[in-house]
Amino acid sequence: MIIYLKKFGTTLTSRQIGKEAFAAILPVIKTAEAHERIEIDFDGVVTFSPSWGDEFFRPLFEQFAGRVFLKASNNASVKATLAMLEKVYGKPLPQSPAK
Amino acid sequence: MKNTSFLSIADAAAFVGVSTQTLRRWDKSGVLKPDFLSPGGHRKYRQHMLETFSANARGIADQWVSSREPMPLEAKYHCENSGVFQVCLHRFEQELVEELKDENKAALIVAVAGEIGNNAFDHNFGNWPDVSGVFFAYDLKKCQVIIAERGQGILTTLKRVRPQLQTNEQALRTAFTEIVTGRAPEPRGNGLKFVRDVVTHNPLCLFFQSGDVQVEISPEKKDLLIIPAEKDIRGTHVVLEYK
C-alpha cells in the first residue's frame, strides 16, 4: 500500500492537521493485508515540517512497526524534517529500497 | 507628491486606528514620536509619516506585542485561529515558490514559519491572555516574514514542565536546545530545534524575542547569544529574513 501525502495538501506543517490525517488514513491502512508494506510517498508535497510529521509518523510507526517505509524525496523540507524526527526518535527511519 | 498635512493627536489616532492614550504612550516609549509640538504643546503628526508607519508590518507587530492593552489589528495581519493561519501560510507558500523559482528554498522558509506560527497556537490554545491568534505578514520584496503573538510566553509555558526555569533567557535557551514541551506528557517539543537547525544551515536570519530577551540566529550566528531586549513584550515577536 502506498500513502500519497499530497492527498492531505501541499503545506503539511500543523500538528492538528497531522493528527487528523493519521485518524483519516488509519481505517484505510487497516484494510491492508497483515504483512503488507506501507510506503509513504512525499511527491507533490511542497512544505513538510516536524509538527505534522510527528503527529502522523509517531502513531504510524508504533501501530505498524516493521511495515512502514519512507520513499526517497528530494524536497529540502522533507529531508530536514525526517532528519529532525530521527534525532527525536533516536533511530533512523526505515527507507524504501531505491529502485 | 507627499502629503504634508499635519494631524492632531485625535486625527492621528483615528488614522492609525488606536486611541489617543496609545499614541501618548508610544510617544513616551519612542515607538511613534510626533513630528513636532505646537507652541501650545500639542502633538502634531505628518500624515505621510503615519502612512509609512502604518505600512511597516514589522513596526505594527512590534506595537501590537509591546502595548499593554491590545490595539486593534487589521484583519489582513490577524490569524485569529489555526485554520486561518494555515490558509495564510499556504498562500505564502504559493507566492514564495512563484517569486523565488526555487521550491526547496521556499519549502524551508515556509516550514520554519509554519513551526513558529503553529507553536503559538499549540501552546496558547484556550489560554490566550487577551487576544487569541497570531500576527502574520510577509513581504516578498523585503524578503521578510513576521510572526508575533500576545500569548503566555515561552517561560510560562515551559515552567509547567521545568519549574526550575526562572527567566526568559533560560526558557528561550531551553526551547531552542532541548527536546522539551510545555504540553507534556504529549510527546512534542522539537519545533524550535528544527527552526534553529534549518536557519543555521541556510541563508536565513531569525530574530526571536520572547518577553524581555531576544536572540539572533543565522549561519554566522550559530551560538545562542541571548541578550536583553529594548523592551518587554507579550508573547513572542519573530522576524525571519531570507536572501
Low-confidence stretches of chain A: none
What string, H for helix and E for strand, traces the elements of chain A in order? EEHEEHEH
Give the largest interface pair and sizes: A-B, 28 and 29 residues
The computed structural class of chain A is alpha/beta
The geometry of chain A reads as: globular
Question: Can you characterise this structure?
Answer:
The complex is a heterodimer of chains A (99) and B (243). Chain A has one domain (2-89). Helix content of chain A is 43%, strand content 14%. Chain A has helices at residues 15-29, 50-63, 76-89, and strands at 2-4, 11-12, 38-41, 47-48, 68-70. The radius of gyration of chain A is 12 Å and the shape is globular. Chain B is an alpha+beta fold and 243 residues long. Chain B contains nine helices and ten strands. Chain B has helices spanning 9-16, 20-29, 47-55, 57-66, 82-100, 103-124, 154-159, 168-177, 191-200, and strands spanning 6-7, 36-37, 43-46, 78-79, 134-139, 144-149, 204-210, 213-217, 226-228, 236-242. The radius of gyration of chain B is 19 Å and the shape is globular. The two termini of chain B are 32 Å apart. Classes of the chains: A alpha/beta (99), B alpha+beta (243).
List keywords for this structure.
heterodimer, A: 99 residues, alpha/beta, 3-stranded parallel β-sheet, two-stranded parallel ribbon, globular, B: 243 residues, alpha+beta, 7-stranded antiparallel β-sheet, 3-stranded antiparallel β-sheet, 18% strand
Write the layout of secondary structure elements.
The complex is a heterodimer of chains A (99) and B (243).
Chain A: E1 2-4, E2 11-12, H1 15-29, E3 38-41, E4 47-48, H2 50-63, E5 68-70, H3 76-89
Parallel strand pairs in A: 1-3, 2-4, 3-5
Chain B: E1 6-7, H1 9-16, H2 20-29, E2 36-37, E3 43-46, H3 47-55, H4 57-66, E4 78-79, H5 82-100, H6 103-124, E5 134-139, E6 144-149, H7 154-159, H8 168-177, H9 191-200, E7 204-210, E8 213-217, E9 226-228, E10 236-242
